[in-house]
């Protein structure tokens, strides 16, 4: 996951710290907007600047807004105890495309793990508002995150260091391989995105890209092939 820096200049950002206990989901109620647009709108309201911690755009890019350590400005009574994620769009009359949904899910899963929290709310569940919009896939999000979490727990409990199977695993979307499934579970556990197929045992494009990302992040030769070094690093923790 790649979080782009919004590079926002805040005015007198509150010194009150944020102590996240939940993730709060919003929409921008605007068809198109950048993090800078939101920043300007919120400055115009006399706020310190962008009230949200993150913006997920329609193309799947993720921008940082207010620092996670600062209290947000997005939901009455919850600003100092939550991380807020805003989604570009108006989901009262639009529906969310896959790219944006996957990025939103990935960011939320990452934050849930980072803060060890499990509560996710749509803004309207806490305040009198129609945010994040009647078409917002909040229910799907909650289901997908619960599935992700239980598969991670399952993957974690069954994945002790497993010895390298002794052969190179390469991209081959036609062949199912139980060893591929094992390392896919480990990649998911480490928060790499395998797309909607998850740990299916097929070494396809998403798995290939996740392997390369993992190799880069671990200073291994980024060739997208799982050999002994990549395997052992994956299963080392
Ligand atoms: Zn909202």
TrEMBL record:
GO BP terms: peptidoglycan catabolic process
Domain N-acetylmuramoyl-L-alanine amidase span(s) in chain numbering: 8-133
Record-annotated Peptidoglycan recognition protein family domain positions: 6-127
One example GO MF annotation: zinc ion binding
Domain of life: Bacteria
Any Pfam family matching the protein: Amidase_2
Signal peptide: none
Entry-linked PANTHER family: PEPTIDOGLYCAN RECOGNITION PROTEIN, PEPTIDOGLYCAN-RECOGNITION PROTEIN LC-RELATED
Family: Belongs to the N-acetylmuramoyl-L-alanine amidase 2 family.
Protein name, per record: N-acetylmuramoyl-L-alanine amidase family 2
Naturally occurring in which organism (per UniProt): Clostridium pasteurianum DSM 525 = ATCC 6013
């Amino acid at each position: 996951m790649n979080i782009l820096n919004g590079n926002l200049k805040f005015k007198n950002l509150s010194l009150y710290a944020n102590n996240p206990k939940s993730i709060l989901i919003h929409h921008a109620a605007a068809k198109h907007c950048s993090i800078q647009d939101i920043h300007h709108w919120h400055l115009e309201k006399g706020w310190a600047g962008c009230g949200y911690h993150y913006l997920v755009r329609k193309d799947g890019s993720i921008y940082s807004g207010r620092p996670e350590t600062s209290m947000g400005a997005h939901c009455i009574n919850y600003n100092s105890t939550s991380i807020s994620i805003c989604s570009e769009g108006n989901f009262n009359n639009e529906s969310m495309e896959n790219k944006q949904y996957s990025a939103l899910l990935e960011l939320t899963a990452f934050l849930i793990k980072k803060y060890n929290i499990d509560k996710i709310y749509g803004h309207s569940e806490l305040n009198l508002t129609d945010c994040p919009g009647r078409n917002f896939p909040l229910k799907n999000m909650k289901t997908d995150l619960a599935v992700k979490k239980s598969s991670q727990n399952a993957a974690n409990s069954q994945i002790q260091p497993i010895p390298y199977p002794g052969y190179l695993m390469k991209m081959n979307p036609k062949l199912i391989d139980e060893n591929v499934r094992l390392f896919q579970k480990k990649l998911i556990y480490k928060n790499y995105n395998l797309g909607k197929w998850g740990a299916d045992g097929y070494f396809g494009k998403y798995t290939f890209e996740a392997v390369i990302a993992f190799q880069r992040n671990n200073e291994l030769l980024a060739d997208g092939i799982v050999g002994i070094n990549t395997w052992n690093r994956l299963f080392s923790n």
